[in-house]
Amino acid sequence: MASEHAPKSAVDTTSVEPTEYRFLPLSIRVETLGGVASPIVRRGTPLPAKRTEVFSTASDNQQSVMIRLFFGERPLAKDNILLAEIELKGIPPAKVGEPQIQVMIEVQRDFTVEAKAIVLGQGTPIEAKIHGNKTHPTREIIQAHLELAESSKSQDAETLDRVETTNSANHLIRSVEANLANGQYTGAAKARAEEQLAALGLALEN
Question: In angstroms, rounded to a whole number, what is the distance separating the alpha carbons of residues 187 and 184?
Answer without folding.
Answer: 10
